[in-house]
Design brief:
homotetramer; alpha/beta; Rossmann fold; Dihydrodipicolinate Reductase, domain 2; 2 domains; five-stranded parallel β-sheet; disordered C terminus
Chain lengths: 359, 359, 359, 359
C-alpha cells in the first residue's frame, strides 16, 4: 500500500450506518473520505446539521456538505473505493454501477450478498472467501459485503469453537439494538416499555449468512456449514449493541472445556497490520452478568478498533450442550466497521492494486 | 363453598407482588383481604401512600393501614388463608408458622417450593399435584406455591403440546420484565439503554420447576418431565410481562402441525367455575410480530382474569424443531394471580373445607 | 337528545389519536362510530391489524375494516358527526368539505382553530365560546376544535385560579409524551436516553391557545387573557401524559392560599350529564411526588371519563408566585376525549338539533 | 506547582460520582489517586469488579482494591488531597477529620457547603470565594465544595449575562438525569415510562446555591445575588446530563440581544492553565433542538475537559424576558469534575502550598 490515503466515498452518509462509516474513516490512515454522498433528505446539508450519533461529529468533516453524486462523477473525481450504507433495494443497482466504473464497493447492504462473485466477509473467519471476487465480471471492480449485524457476532463467536464442538444445532435468540433498524427506524411508541419479537427477514439472514461465513470454499463455491441454525430475533430498547443468547448442541461430548481457551487464542489476522482489526477479536468476560450492551459494546483494542471486538460471557458446558452469550456492536462490528475492515483486508491482500485498465 | 367471603391476609402488601394480590382480591367473590401485612418499611402507612402499581389503588382499601402481624394474631382474627408475597428467606419460617396455626398459605415465594408436601401448582397443568398437600404434617394447613414467573408461562405453553412432540430438548431464552425483581429491584442506571443477561438462580428455577410441573405424580412423588431444558435468562427494560423465546427439539417428526390447534383446544379447568381462571388459558396470536409485552400482557378473559392468559405466537415447525414465543404477565399469571387461582382450585377441590380441629 | 345513538365517523382511524377516538366511542351512549375512515397506509385493513394502543382494541370493532371515504359518501350514509384526527394540512379541506355536507366536525387538528367561527373549546373553561359557531357560513354544520394537548391541561389548571391570582406572567415548561407526536412520530433513537427541548410550533400554540381559551367573548370575538405566557416545550420518553411545570406571577399577593380549594370546588359542567365529563375535572394530589404520568394520566371518574381529569400537585405559594405541576392525558383529555366532550356539550346545548335543511 | 503528582485519595470510590473522580484522576497531570477508599459494600473488591460507568474502567487502576481507610492512615501514607463523593451525612464528620489531619478536601457532598469558611465554588464564576478558606480553623487544611449538580449549570449560564440583564426573577424547571441520585438511586420501576416531579431538597439547593455562587464577597461573607429563583425539579429517564429550562425576567429591557455574545466571550480562567478547565466554558448551540443530553453532555475541550462545558441553546429574548435551555453533565461538571477543577484552582492559587506544619 502507498503512503497516500486512497480517495473514497461514503454512500448513505445521511444515515446511521453511513455516519459510523464517516466516523471511522475521518482519520483513517489508508482511506480518505473525500465524498459524502446522500439521498434527497439530507442532500446539500452540512454533516453537523444531520448528525445522528451520540459520538461527536468528526471536526474535520463537520462542515462538509452531503451531496448527490453519480457513479460517473465519483469515478471522474478519482474515487477508488465506495463504502455503502445504502438501503436495501437502492443499494443493488447503485453498487453495480460503481463497480462497473472501477470503484471497489464495500457494502453493508444485503442486495449483493448472495451473489457468487461477491464475498460475504468477516475477515477473522473467512478471509479465504475473498477469492470469490476473482469471479466478478471482467473490467469491473469488486463488490465485497459485510454480513447482517447479528450474523457477524455469531459467526465470530462460533468460528474458533466450531472445530472443537462440530455443532449439530445452534439455537440463537437475539436482543437487537434500535440502531439495527437505521434512522428513524423503530418508532419510540413501538418500543418504550416493550420488546418486539419480530424483525423482518432477520432470522433467515442470521441463519443463512452465519452458515455461509462458516462454510468452506471449494471449487469456487461456498459450501455452508452443515449445522442447523434456529434463530428467533427480537428488538429491544437499547441504542447500540446486539446481544445473542446461544445454545449449541455439539456432536462431540468433548471440546466444551476448551472453548474459552480457543476464544482467547483466536487471532487469525495477527500479523496483517490492519488498522481497524481488534486484537483480540474476541474478548471473554468472566463477570457473572456480562456481556452487557452498555458496558461491552465498545470493546476492542487498539483505539481505532473500538466496537470491533465480539464479547462472550456466561459460558456453560453441559455435554453435549454449550450455552453462552455474545455481544457485538451492530453498527460498528456488524456494520460500518465490518466493511472498513473488509476494505483493509482487500488492500492488504492486494486486491485493489491491479492496474485500473484491468478492472 | 359458602356465600361468605373467606377472611384472608396478604403478606408483603407493601411490595410489588403483594399489591397485585391486593388488587386481585379487593373485590374477589370468595376471598376478603381483611389484613394487609407488611414489613417495617411500610408498616403503619396507608395503602394509597405506598402504592407502587400503575393500576389504580382499589378504592375500598386505599386508606387501610398496613400492619405488622404475627401468625397468632392473624389466626385469632379469623383469617383462614394467607397470600404470601414475602421475600425469599423471610417467607419460609413465616409461612410455616401460619400453616401450623391452621392458616392455609398460598405463596409466591420459592422457600417451600421443593418440599414433598408442598404442591407447586399451575392449575391448568398439574392440578393433580394438589394431592401432595395430603402429606403435610398432621394438624397443619396446607402450603401451596405458584412457580417462578418465567416457569409459569413456559409450563402453560408446553402442557398441551408436550404429548404431541415429546420434547427431547427445550432451549429457552427470556426477556424478563423489571417487576420480576420486585421493588425497588433493578436500578434504573443498570437497565436504561441496556439489557442484563443474568438473573440470580433464575435459569435453574426455570428449568427445574418447569420439568416438575410437567412431571407425573406417582407414588406420592413427582417424577419430572425428562426433557432437557436449557435456559438463558435476561432482564430487559419492560415494566411487566415476561417474553420467552422457545426452541423445542421434538422426538417425533409429526405433531408439529397440530400444536396451534392443541393450544386453542386447551381448557382443562373449563367446568370448575374458578373466578380468576382465564378462558382460554392460552391465546394464540397470528400477527407476525406478536406476542409483545405492551400489547399482550393483560390477555385473559373474563375481566377478572386479565393478565392470566399465556399468549403464544410466531409458531414455526421445522421438523423436528418447533419455535415459538410465549408471553405471560409475570406479576399476575406468574405471581399473585397464580396463587389466587391456586387458592380457588383448593376451595373448589374442598381442600380448605375440613373441620378446623383436624388441621 | 334522542334514545338513538347518532351515526358518526372517525377520520384518521389508523392513527394514534384516531384510535383513542374509536376506543372512547365504541360503546358511547350518544354516538355510534359507524365509519372508520383512514388514509392509504391502513385502508382496507381490519382495526385489530393496525391497532397501536396499549389498551385493547374494542371487541365489537376489532374486525371492522378501515376505509377511504369522501364527505359525500359519509353524508349519504347518514353520518351526522365526524371526529377528526387528521394530520395538520390534510384536516383543513377535508373538514370544510364535511361541514358543507352538513356533518358536524369535532376536530383535534389545528387547521381551523384560529378561525372566527370555529370554537376552540375546553367545555369546563369556555363553554360560552360555543356561540362562535353561529357565525359559520349558512347551510354548513359547525366545526368545533379541541386545543393543543399541552394547552388543554394548562387552561384547565388556570381557569379556577386565574380570578384569584390575576396572573401577570406564566412561565411553563413541559414534559410531553411521545404520543403527542402521533405514530410513528418520535424515532426511538432520538429519545432513548435523551430528552428533546424542541417541539415544532408547540410553544406558540401553548401560549396563544391557552390565552384564547381563558379569554372572554365579547361582540362575537374572543379577547385573549392578558397574561404573558412563556412556554418551553420538551419531549420526554413517556408513552402518554403531558406534565407541565408552571410558575405564575400573580398581580395580587392574596389569593394563593385559596387555589387548592378553588381547584377542588371547580365543577362547572356539574349538572349537564355529559357522559365523558370527569367529576371533578381537576384532581389535587397531596403526595409530595405527584402528579406523575405513570400514576395519574388515567385520572378521571366515572369510568367513561378515565384520562379526562387534569391532576395538579406540588402547589407552593411564595407571594406573588405560585408554583405547581399539572398533568393531563395528552391523547385523551388533550386529544380524542377533548373532542368527544365537545361533541357531548354541543348535543347538550342543542347545537346539533337544528333541522337538516337549515344547515 | 511541582513536577510530581500530588498524592490523593478518592472517598466513595465504589459509587457513581466516586468513579467519575477515579476516571478523571487516573491520568491527571497534577494528582495521583493512590487510595481508592470505599464503604463496606465494595471494600476489598477490585475497581473493575464494582465499576458502574458506561465509560471503561481506567486500565491502570482496574485491579486496584478499594479499601476502608481512616483519616489518620491516609495522612500517614502521605495523601495531600482527598476528593470526596461520600453520601450526605457521612461526608460531614469524615471530611472534617481529614481537614484536621492536614488533608485538603474537595467535596461533592452538601454537608459543609453552607459553612462560612468553606468555599462553594464554580471556578469560572466565583473564584474569588476561595478566599473564604482563609477563615478555616488554624492548623487545618481547607475544605472546598462544588455545588449541587443543577446549580452548577445554572450558575455558569447566568454568570456572564447577569450583569447585562440584572435578573429580577428566574424560573427554572429541570430535567435531571438518573445518575444525579447515585447508584442504585432511582428504581427502574419508578421511572420507566414516567418522569417524577420531585427530588428531595433539590429545589432549595438549586435556588440558594445559585444565588450564593453568583453573590458577592464582602467583609469575608457572601451576599447572595438578589434575584428571586423559583425552581421546580424533575427526574427523567436519562442516564447523564441535566437539562434546565430557564425563564429570566430582566430588570432592564436592553441586554437581551447581547447574551449570546456574552456567553461566547466568557473565558475567565483563560490564562491559568488548569488541565480540566473547558475552553470555552459555555458552548452556544444554534441548532433548533439543542442542547440535548445525548448529544451535548460530553461537551468541553480539550479532551481532558470533556463533560465540563455547559451548553446553552434555544435562546429567545422577549423583553424583558429571556428564555433558554442549559445542559451540563451532572456527574462531571456538576460533580466529580467540578471538584477536580476546584482542586486545580486551589493549586494554581497556591492554596495548597503552605508548609505542612502551618496547616
Amino acid at each position: 500500500m502507498t503512503g497516500e490515503r486512497r480517495r473514497c466515498a461514503v454512500l448513505g452518509a445521511g444515515g446511521y450506518i453511513g455516519q459510523h462509516f464517516v466516523r471511522l474513516l475521518a482519520d483513517h490512515p489508508w482511506f480518505d473520505p473525500v465524498e459524502l454522498v446522500s439521498g434527497e433528505r439530507t442532500e446539500g446539508r452540512r454533516l453537523e446539521e444531520v448528525w445522528l450519533l451520540a459520538e461527536p461529529v468528526p471536526p474535520a468533516l463537520a462542515r462538509v456538505r452531503l451531496r448527490g453524486r453519480t457513479a460517473a462523477s465519483l469515478a471522474a473525481s478519482g474515487v477508488e473505493l465506495a463504502f455503502s450504507a445504502l438501503p436495501a433495494g437502492v443499494a443493488g443497482p447503485r453498487e453495480t454501477a460503481l463497480a462497473r466504473r472501477g470503484i471497489a464497493v464495500f457494502s453493508n447492504a444485503a442486495d449483493h450478498r448472495r451473489e457468487p462473485s461477491v464475498p460475504l466477509l468477516v475477515p477473522e473467519v473467512n478471509a479465504a472467501h475473498l477469492a470469490l471476487a476473482a469471479r466478478r465480471p471482467r473490467g469491473t471492480a469488486p463488490i465485497i459485503t459485510n454480513p447482517n449485524c447479528s450474523a457477524t457476532g455469531l459467526a465470530l463467536a462460533l468460528a474458533p469453537i466450531a472445530p472443537l464442538l462440530r455443532p449439530k444445532t445452534i439455537a440463537v435468540s437475539t436482543y437487537q439494538a434500535l440502531s439495527g433498524a437505521g434512522y428513524p427506524g423503530v418508532a419510540s411508541l413501538a418500543i418504550t416499555d416493550n420488546v418486539v419479537p419480530y424483525i423482518p427477514r432477520e432470522e433467515d439472514k442470521l441463519a443463512q449468512e452465519t452458515a455461509h461465513i462458516l462454510g468452506t470454499l471449494a471449487g469456487g463455491r461456498v459450501r455452508p456449514h452443515p449445522a442447523r441454525i434456529l434463530a428467533q430475533c427480537v428488538r429491544v430498547g437499547v441504542r447500540e449493541g446486539h446481544l445473542e443468547s446461544v445454545t449449541v448442541e455439539a456432536s462431540r461430548r468433548s471440546g466444551g472445556p476448551e472453548v474459552t481457551a480457543a476464544w482467547r487464542r483466536f487471532d487469525p489476522l495477527g500479523d496483517l497490520g490492519l488498522p481497524t482489526a481488534p486484537r483480540p477479536p474476541i474478548e471473554v468476560r468472566t463477570g457473572e452478568d456480562r456481556p452487557q450492551p452498555l458496558h461491552d459494546r465498545w470493546a476492542g483494542a487498539p483505539a481505532r478498533a473500538r466496537g470491533m471486538a465480539a464479547v462472550v460471557g456466561r459460558v456453560r458446558w453441559d455435554p453435549p450442550f454449550l450455552r453462552f452469550f455474545v455481544l457485538s456492536h451492530n453498527a460498528v462490528r456488524g456494520g460500518a466497521g465490518g466493511s472498513v475492515l473488509n476494505a483493509e483486508l482487500a488492500v492488504a491482500k492486494g486486491l485493489l492494486d491491479r492496474p485500473r485498465g484491468d478492472r
